[in-house]
Design brief:
Chain lengths: 465, 406
Amino acid sequence: MSFDSTYTRELPLVEAKKSFKEIDEVIALPTETKPTKGWWIAFSISSTALLIGAFCLSLTFYYGIGMWGNNNPVGWAFDIINFVFWIGIGHAGTLISAILFLFRQKWRTGIARFAEAMTIFAVMTAGIFPIIHTGRPWLAGYLLPLPNQNGVWVNFSSPLLWDVFAVSTYFTISFLFWGIGLIPDLATLRDRTTSKIKKTIYSVLSLGWTNSNRNWSNYERAYLILAGISTPLVLSVHTIVSFDFAVSVLPGWHTTIFPPYFVAGAIFSGFGMVSTVLILVRKVFNMEHIITIGHLEKMNKILLATGMMVGYAYGMEFFIAWYSGNTFEQFVFINRAFGPYAWAYWTMVSCNVIFPQLFWFKKIRRSIPITMVLVILVNVGMWFERFVIIVTSLHRDFLPSSWAMYYPTLVDLGLLLGSFGFFFTFLLLFLKTLTLVSISEIKAVVEGAQPTIHPHPGGNGQHHD
Amino acid sequence: MVSIMIKKLINFVKEYDSKDDREPRSKKLFGLAALYNTPNEIITAAADVAGKGYEKFDVYTPYPMHGMDDAMGMKSSKVGYVSFALGLTGMCLALLMIWWMSSVNYQNIIGGKPFFSLPPAIPITFEGTVLLTGIATVFGMLILFNQLPKINSPLNDTDFMKRVSSDKFGVVIKADDEKFSDSEVRKLFLSGGAFEIQEIYYRETNLGIKTPIFDGKFISIIFATAILTAIITYITLNIVLYDVVPFDWMWKQAKINSQSKSDFFPNKAGMREPVNGTVARGFLPYEYKGMPDSSVKLLSNPLAVSRKVLERGQERFNIYCSPCHGYFGEGDGRMKDQFPKPPSLHNQKVLNWSDGNIYHVITNGQNVMPSYAEQVSVDDRWAIIHYIRTLQRSKNASDEDLTKAK
């Protein structure tokens, strides 16, 4: 893939009215054709990873969490690292669908649906980890304040409980947001298909949507309200995730910078994952004209900005450790950068802060192969960020007698692999069954889609704007 | 064999899949529909239709069109009111829940903090607000404002709908509008540049001619689903989540219970016996066990009389002694016609007995009365004896006692 001139065209489907039909065809194509060889290869890889994860999970269920490498000072390890990693990835979807919507960024329409789907699958993946981490996940219902025979309720002042509420609310709202966005598209698919079975399914899922303007009017208002509430919600979710650490009294966790630092990191990692997958998807499904290189460039700019915010947080943590004069705090940070896990720390810093600086150059921002390498590094770096925060803070306790190293077991690694399998299996199924770009939203931003005159019922003539 | 069956199944599915399932339409007109090519044409047509005074009409576009609400003379959407009301409710409910659960219903001391304070309640209150706002917005918009789901709308499954969900723009004026007249509506549509006019008829199910809910296939599918759900739920809850490792609530563990067999110990019993001569606390052996009461002399009541001891004695007496001896020790208990009547506790013999004699009878038994050593603890026996003495004194009170009571 070289720097191709066709990539620089923005929305070439704009020119004529008849292009609405072409938009339908391009976007609905994956749902109407048999899967390609490439899709089957990807699906077999991801489902194999999923099966490995399922096997490791059954071992965990049967023998208990002693199968993991967690030990006495390092009580939180891969379980919580994976949870924070995946929940962070979800945040890009909401940012694109809600915050960019409120800022009237029309370019979001090309990637919003896909990013929202990623949010949902990422939150589903993330949700597995705190539940299996409890040891007996089939009793997870007790995480909620449900009436029970002991008459006792959950602890409302615990950040872990806030997490339960935040993540479940986040999943529900993201799912509703994604779901109402799909309704008009499902109606379009329903009217396109010739298969009776598909038509029945799409008819039920589209709830009998008729594209009526009286419905659109309420629909648009509801969409705006959802975007409005999703914006503070997405900020609250990772803030509360960071409270899991910041509200404790452990040096390395007990810092006030955690909420904004975590939110910036979440958006950073989320955009990294969106870019990684989109680059492949737009090529495989021939959607280079809808998901343009312009989109990728804009996402790279956001990566550059959020990467530097994360870098600022890394620096500020060191500054505060020195400025506080607290020996425990200072020890933790020096140990992070030069202790036994220094390799993880420097992987994190180079992937998250140093390499993304290449995005200052326009040529690199618009080069697909280099972007691909950099965004994969971002994914790696952000996973290591959580590793560094969790493991290096825990493995050197207040008491040197309880110091220990953490090593993951094969089951830990299998669960990490399985989480990727889970995520990508859902994503691949989504790509073949639903529209990965919003048809109705794309049509609305095509040139010439909106009327140039705005008549009123009483007024006889028409007036130009 | 199997491959033939699979092939037959695939053929059946394919045949079913390609069937034309268009529902028959009635003769009753739902409305007239016009199709337009461009956004400007449709928005002008919408303003024309609204301007002519039609009320039961709607515009159909593949995507939301700016300015269409104004052109149709529509008021701004009221979805926001529902969102706001339910959002406020969500906030209040969440706060109320936290306050009631943690400071009213079950007060749990956590780190010596107040049972309820606002700052730690804020995150959950916020999430509750957002959750209810979001649910209210989506379901309010769909169900209250748009009357969805409605899969059998007369417009669905028509050529008109296939066009407006893809690349054309349409207007429908319903036949039950007061001003509706076939020729005038057609004229209006054509003057606005409509390239096609279609008649939309009601479905038979819309008019109640056919009721799909009583369809045999539908009912049997519902029944089959109900039975299947019941079976799966039963298996999940009663077998999988109850009796299979690791979901068995840790009932099956690699340890020996006191009553189970063990090959490890020579006597094959899982239970360990105490060393010979071991005496458990509070179970000192009774030294006059099985001896006649004449030999018991030395025992005296170790408990001092107090209200608490007497109440304990009364309670134990009422439980263990009153069935035969009666509540006042007169030998007229509830068992009197089914069991030999015991002598009154107020006869001269018992009045003259020392406390040790009574203790001996309770511990050892006498005649048909069995030993109560297993049921009544040593201290309780002495408390009962104090109570019996009280009963005796109350039955044989002297004048002196009465003046003392004053």
